[in-house]
Amino acid sequence: MFDKRQTNIAKGIAVLMLLWHHLFFETLEVMNSFTPVFKYHDVPAETVISVFFKICVAIFVFLSGFGLYKSYTSYLNKNSMGGGNTGIKEKVKYAVNHVLHLLSNFWFIYIIFVPLGFIFNYPPTTIYENNFWYFLRDFFGMSGWDRAGGIIQTMNSSWWFMTLILILNIFFPLIYKFFNKYPHIIIFLIPILPSIADVNVYFFPFVLGMYFSKFSVFERIPKRFQLYKICVPVLISSIVIGFFIKILLFTYDKNLDEFFALPVILLSFLVISKIPVLNNVLENLGKHSGNIYMFHVFIYDMYFKTFIYSFKYSIIIFVVLTVVCYGISVLLELIKKWTRYDKLFEIITNKIAQA
After folding, report:
1. Which residues, at least 6 apart from 3, have a Cβ–Cβ distance to it below 8 Å?
2. Tell me: the pLDDT tens digits for 206-251?
3. Which of 66, 78, 73 is nearest to 3 (CA)?
4. How far is residue 182's CA from residue 201's CA, in Å, rounded to a whole number?
């Protein structure tokens, strides 16, 4: 089954792609910050690979759709079997709990890393241009609201994704209801969806994840295909072909990223999850993927940029950032445990849910 462990392994792969993508994506400053393995038409190979690794967003969104569908279905079944109410109030409660859970993790990162900007020459007052609205929008994970409009006053450029996930969680009960009634036509809603935080772009991989969950697609993969001599060559070939198609034809287009991401997810499920040691490493990394996503920009691009890129060679830079981010995330989770932050927020969430 594609369970929570499988999800974390896939997240581990996606977060590695995320770190590589941001470290070596194409800007002249970045390309001059490391020694490339080789260049193709004066473009470092690392930068070419980073373009393909943008599919990490589609992987995360697919996994969100997959997980939310399972979670919400279980929630509805539990309430029904227990004679509980699964009306509008219960559905709203589910959405509120999930949104508050997302924000609780986000706020923990925010209150630790944003004030550090005063020390590392990135004062929030300057970033927000002394505008309280910019602060409020960023604090509630809505900096991606103006993503399509150009420059965003945010402390962390990757927080636009937070807006996308929050929107999908807020409206999930509605999406779920429509999807269950019309699972094969819901994608036709895409043309009328807003461009806020690329909702119109990533709605399809989100629904695709729901589709895989509802129809148990992973479990229906023929046993014959799961043989290494069949699935490994097919999936690796699919990824290689997808790489060249993405690089040559869809470099800046994100609309088809779910199709390039799917072979990676299948490779994770059918092959990588069965490799000893590597599967455990990726699973542990995946468990921290949320934290790493939220703070990694502060590490590699803002507060410790000189240190990270001082290692000169791309592989070393990448390994150092990965280890540093993982170590910081582990420390953050320990601080949460020591301060009983999660417990406190759980009490607050329950109070709000009962209101």
Report:
1. none
2. 999 999 999 999 999 988 888 878 899 999 999 999 999 999 998 8
3. 66
4. 20
Q: Cα–Cα distance between 19 and 334 in angstroms, integer? A: 23
Are 74 and 49 in contact by the 8 Å Cβ rule? The answer is no
Q: Which position has the token pair 């227990």?
A: 82
Locate 26 and state its tokens: 């194409």
Amino acid at site 36 = P
Q: Quick one: which H or E segment has residue 40?
A: strand 39-40
Tens-digit pLDDT profile for residues 60-115: 999 999 999 999 999 988 877 555 556 788 888 889 989 999 999 999 999 999 99
Q: Where are the alpha helices (DSSP H) in 250-313?
A: 257-270, 278-287, 289-297, 305-309
Say if residues 193 and 200 touch (Cβ distance below 8 Å): yes
First vs last Cα of the chain: how many Å apart? 37
- Both tokens of residue 164? 């996308």
CA distances from 315 to 34, 142, 309, 319 (A): 10, 34, 11, 6
